[in-house]
């Protein structure tokens, strides 16, 4: 595809990715105002959890549906669901309504994200994707930086309702561009939808995500519920394996996992997501509680990671034209391992600039490895399975991050409670640390306790990153092809 149509579709995909990625940061900024007006503080966290649960569940399903029914139809359906959810969120009268409507919004986002990258794989050749992939990845970085500022502006200058209403004109514009410019290409994946497989997969993901949310809560009652839900998730995933083996057109083709490149890409995505997303969730806590920076400064600790990820994605994608994807992925994972090795040594005396450098190295590692695997998979997988393959690779990273955040949250809590108990303190003492009301001696003790607890999760992240490096090493050594097959016809 060349000419004006290519530019129009590219603009539509950039807008789509921007909307989906902005939503988390913009809403987070507006939530204090929303809680003040709607109440419902006890279910505050579910405004984010419902969105994440719904979007994560739908990623592999929308990917498969796009292989069967074509990209445009499924993309437009996902955009409509997202916009309907946005409009409903803006009209919410209670916090419970907002949670339910956020779930609707998340269902649409679960289609927008994988389909955008899948369509990129459809319209660009290998050489074009190597040049463009980094720019598409940079959309996430840009949205993470300007999202909080934009959200604050909307809340202060208008009302919190505009945090959701602003999606409507841009979403409709992106959908209109797709209707005018995009024509699905053949071949598609033949056969009927695997409804049973989709239902079992959805139930398994929901059970797993709910288990992780409960595990993150940390109380004894929550742990019991989490174990029960984990058991249900395991049974459902085992059932899914049996169902998909017999399905004529499985929602999650097991044959893909017999391809070494695809299997290593999924394994890498899970472990890299576990390490990075799981650990960086606690970096602002370390910066504020241990290094003593302000809440605003603590939030800014992730900025170097985002910027480094964007820059490395742009550079690394272009390097694929000259170097093997496996070499770049191994370079990225080596940098990621080095970053976490250095993070295990941070303490209360670590200067803030040094933390920025180390965090930036982690983003650089992801920027070199993530696009390398995605482009390699999209270039080698059969066109009929492109949507499924792209969605599954992205899904593995999301699940890895969710599991990592929950596991590391448990590790942090356990180590912190144990250390504070040894000092004759309890977890409620952390409030005095963040407020700065404790004595000098107590503040020093609390900072050391938090530093030791955070070091524990950095060690866990380091182990996951090292496993990710080993998995990457098993990726095929052959160079990926230089172009996707040219589609035979258009509809």
Stretches with pLDDT under 50, minimum 5 residues: 482-491
Helix count from the secondary structure assignment = 18
Tell me the major beta sheet: none
Number of strands: 0
What Rg do the Cα atoms give? Answer: 22 Å
The topology string of helices and strands comes to: HHHHHHHHHHHHHHHHHH
Amino- and carboxy-terminal Cα gap: 14 Å
Helix content: over 70%
Quick one: overall form? globular
Secondary-structure-based class equals: mainly alpha
Summed over residues and divided by their number, the pLDDT gives a mean of 82
Amount of beta strand: under 5%
What does this structure look like?
- It is a single chain.
- This protein is an all-alpha fold and 491 residues long.
- The chain has helices spanning 3-38, 46-69, 71-90, 95-123, 126-157, 162-165, 167-181, 195-217, 220-246, 260-280, 283-289, 295-299, 303-319, 325-343, 352-380, 386-422, 430-435, 440-473.
- Helix 1 (3-38) runs antiparallel to helix 4 (95-123), helix 14 (325-343) packs antiparallel against helix 15 and helix 16 packs antiparallel against helix 18.
- It is globular.
- It starts with a helix and ends in an 18-residue tail after the last helix.
- Residues 482-491 have low confidence and may be disordered.
């Amino acid at each position: 595809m060349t000419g004006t149509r290519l530019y129009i579709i590219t603009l539509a995909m950039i807008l789509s990715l921007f909307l989906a990625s902005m939503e988390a940061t913009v809403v987070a900024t507006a939530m204090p105002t929303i809680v003040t007006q709607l109440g419902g503080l006890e279910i505050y966290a579910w405004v984010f959890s419902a969105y994440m649960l719904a979007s994560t569940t739908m990623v592999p399903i929308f990917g498969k549906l796009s292989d069967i029914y074509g990209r445009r139809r499924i993309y437009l359906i996902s955009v409509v669901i997202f916009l309907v959810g946005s409009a409903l969120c803006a009209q919410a009268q209670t916090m419970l309504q907002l949670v339910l409507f956020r779930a609707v919004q998340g269902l649409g986002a679960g289609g927008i994200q994988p389909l955008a990258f899948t369509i990129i794989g459809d319209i660009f050749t290998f050489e074009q994707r190597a040049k463009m992939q980094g720019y598409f990845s940079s959309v996430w970085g840009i949205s993470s930086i300007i999202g909080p500022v934009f959200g604050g502006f909307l809340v202060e200058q208008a009302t919190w309702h505009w945090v959701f209403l602003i999606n409507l004109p841009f979403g409709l514009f992106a959908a209109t561009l797709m209707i005018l410019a995009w024509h699905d290409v053949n071949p598609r994946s033949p056969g009927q939808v695997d409804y049973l497989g989709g239902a079992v997969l959805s139930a398994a993901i929901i059970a797993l995500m709910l288990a992780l949310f409960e595990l993150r809560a940390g109380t004894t009652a929550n742990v019991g519920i989490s174990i029960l839900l984990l058991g249900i998730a395991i049974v459902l995933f085992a059932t899914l394996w049996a169902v998909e083996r017999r399905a004529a057109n499985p929602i999650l083709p097991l044959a893909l996992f017999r391809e070494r490149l695809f299997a290593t890409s999924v394994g890498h995505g899970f472990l890299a997501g576990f390490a990075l997303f799981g650990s960086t969730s606690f970096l602002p806590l370390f910066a504020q509680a241990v290094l003593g920076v302000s809440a605003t400064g603590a939030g800014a600790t992730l900025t170097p990671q985002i910027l480094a990820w964007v820059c490395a994605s742009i550079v690394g994608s272009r390097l694929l034209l000259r170097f093997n994807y496996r070499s770049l992925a191994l370079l990225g994972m080596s940098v990621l391992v080095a970053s976490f090795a250095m993070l295990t040594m941070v303490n209360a005396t670590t200067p803030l600039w040094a933390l920025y450098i180390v965090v930036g190295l982690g983003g650089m590692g992801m920027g070199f490895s993530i696009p390398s695997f995605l482009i390699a998979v999209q270039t080698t997988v059969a066109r009929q399975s492109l949507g499924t393959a792209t969605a599954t690779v992205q899904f593995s990273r999301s699940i890895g991050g969710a599991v990592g955040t929950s596991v590391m949250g448990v590790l942090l809590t356990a180590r912190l409670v144990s250390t504070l108990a040894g000092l004759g303190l309890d977890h409620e003492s952390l409030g005095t640390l963040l407020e700065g009301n404790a004595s000098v001696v107590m503040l020093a003790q609390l900072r050391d306790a938090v530093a030791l607890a955070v070091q524990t999760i950095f060690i866990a992240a380091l182990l996951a990153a090292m496993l990710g490096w080993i998995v990457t090493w098993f990726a095929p050594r052959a160079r990926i092809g230089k172009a996707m097959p040219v589609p035979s016809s258009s509809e």
